[in-house]
Amino acid sequence: MLEVQGLTVRYGELTIVDDVSFCVEKGERLMIVGPNGAGKSTLVNAIMQGAPYTGKVLFEGEDVRELRPAQLARRLGMLMQNHFVGYAFTVEEVVSLGRYAYARGLFAAHSDDDEQHIAQAVERCGLTELLGQSVLTLSGGELQRTFLAQVFAQDPQLLILDEPTNHLDLVYQKRILELIEEWLTASGKAVLAVVHDLTLAKAFATRVMLMDKGRIVALDTPDVALSDERLQQVYGMDVRQWMQGLLTQWS
Amino acid sequence: MTSKGFKAPAYVLFAVVTLATVLLCTAVGSVYIPLPDALAAIWNSLTSWLSGAFMGTSAAAPTGGSVATVADIVPSVRLPRVLCAGLVGAALAVSGCAMQGLLKNPLADGSTLGVSAGASLGAVLAIVFGLNLAALPFAGTTIMAALFAFLSLLTILALAYRLDYSLSTNTIILVGVIFGMFVSALISIFIVFAGQQAAHIIFWTMGSLQGRGYEYVLMLLLVLAVFGGILLSLRRELNAFAIGEDNARHLGVDVKRVKLLVLICTAALIGAAVSVGGTIAFVGLVTPHIVRMLTGPNHARLMPASLFGGAIFLMLCDLIARTALIPRELPIGVITSIIGAVIFVRIFFVTRKVR
Q: How far is A155 from A101, CA to CA, in rounded Å?
């Protein structure tokens, strides 16, 4: 589905992402983990054409650089961790914008297909009661669900998530991950997600990509990629012992 | 769940209020003309113009003479000026509305971007050096203002691009503010060396619609139809930008193309407005704020409503400028600044309290 070949991002002399190559297959949940500054967010930003890069990003064999923005949006959708909306748009207005890439003309209204996708996304994310509410009045979790519904309405083939559950409490973290899981199961598409929480990566990923200093350290099943030795090498600490220590507080 | 357009009854209401404002501003002035007389004068001049245009007969020219009559004042002095005020207000409000959406910043408008200052510099140069075209007496100022608005835009974008590849909104605003200050300093230098022209330039930089005729009305109508129309067609893109530039890109908006298009349209609208009315501040800043309270931030409703709102606001400000200290006339920019600043502070406090 998605093939990244030798992707490198440099800001002046600084190399943020260094010659990264990997594939994402249909039905897969590939999670990218690594310490701060590993280049995870820059990598997904470059894939979404938000940062200048060298190398190639191919989607179904097509170079995404050759695609028009609307064509790209029908293939790749992105959910970011933070949203700073400046004006009092309603939940409905934000979700409806997800269909922008399917607009048929400058003044054309939404098609039945658009309406159906919006309605499904709203229902799936439990936003029916909030449709007319201003996004400025929503809680962090409600706002994230609104933008998740927007990207569901966008109906991309590959959903890219950049730390989607950061700043959310446990209930919302669980809800957002369940919604993404449901969407993936129903649509047979794929998810590429940047996460900080190694437990989440282990629990939800089909494969994990461990990054450090802009390079891939491991790309494998969660158990292999997140082995004690590799985590020690990347994080410089015994991650298992630390997590087990945390869990004993609950016993 | 269709995206709500600006609903028909609201259009009608805005149009009626705009027309009522045109009539009020045509009737009231240093010479009071009763409303029925003003209406009759407008109707007569319109029918005679139409018969001239379609039947080949010459339109009845306003009668000359020392005593100003209703038939003279309304069609040849009041009406074109009122229409100019309305169209300048509409152009400034629509451009301000588009800038605030594009830059996701409620403080953005032509003056923040530096385009108004650039347009003013062009117009001042035309006045100082007497640049004009024989066939069109106002063309020199208009062309120079529009040209300098575009040149300012190019300079601001080139500088912003050198600083920041992604042309982020903060960079554009910062460069715009600095550019505006620099250009204002240049205008001051020209005023110092302008000699006899100094008073004219100073009055003009404070804004005035004195003596504006139908040629200006036509020019403004054309610019507003073309560039305002393009901005209206970009309402979805502006909504996406108003939510966030990254979000817009992820939704499939061609962000660089849309940015460039919006900035060009804004420059054209501001260039035309500045060339007709001088520097008129706060219209582009305050009108979208007030209108947003009625329509919400969706540009499908906000932009048409701002068009009417800006027209009404500036026509009323021009009325105050003409009538507050009869027989003296105040610069319209002074009126818009006083009223605009008070309204803006009020809005700012209310918004802060709500938050």
A: 10
In eight-state DSSP terms, residue B57 is: P
Phi, psi at A190, each rounded to 5°: -145, 155
For residues A126 and A148, what is the distance between their CA atoms, to the nearest angstrom? 11
- Closest-CA residue in chain B for A135? B243
For A92, the closest chain B residue by CA position comes to B1
Predicted TM-score (pTM) of the model is 0.86
Determine the distance in angstroms separating the CA of A43 from the nearest CA of chain B, rounded to an integer: 15
User: Which tens digit of pLDDT belongs to each residue from B77-135?
Assistant: 788 899 999 999 999 999 999 988 988 877 778 777 788 889 888 888 888 887 776 66
Q: Cβ(B332)–Cβ(B92) under 8 Å?
A: no
C-alpha–C-alpha distance, residues B187 and B202, integer Å: 10
pLDDT tens digit sequence for B123-172: 888 888 877 766 666 677 777 887 888 788 788 878 887 887 666 667 87
Both tokens assigned to B262: 């919006």
> In Å, how far is B25's CA from the nearest CA of chain A?
34
Decide: residue B221, CB within 10 A, 0-12 exposed, 13-18 middle, 19+ buried.
Answer: middle
Q: Is B244 in CB contact (< 8 Å) with chain A?
A: yes
**Cα separation values, B135 from B59, B140, B212, Å:** 21, 10, 16
pLDDT tens profile A148-165: 999 999 999 999 999 888
What element of type H or E holds B280? none
Task: Give the whole-angstrom CA distance, residue A121 versus residue A152.
Answer: 6
Q: Nearest-CA distance from A95 to chain B in Å?
A: 10
ipTM: 0.90
- What is the rounded distance in angstroms from the CA atom of residue A100 to the CA atom of residue B241? 12
**CB of A153 less than 8 A from some CB of B:** no
What are the Cα distances from residue B84, in Å, to A131, B225, B314? 41, 14, 9
Residues of B in contact with A90 (CB under 8 A): 296
Contact A89 B297 (CB under 8 A): yes
**DSSP secondary structure letters along A71-95:** HHHHHEEEE-S-----S--BHHHHH
State residue B52 phi and psi, 5-degree precision. Answer: -65, -40
DSSP-assigned letters across all residues of A5-41: EEEEEEETTEEEEEEEEEEE-TT-EEEEE-STTSSHH
DSSP B78: I
CA–CA separation, B321 and A79 (whole Å): 51
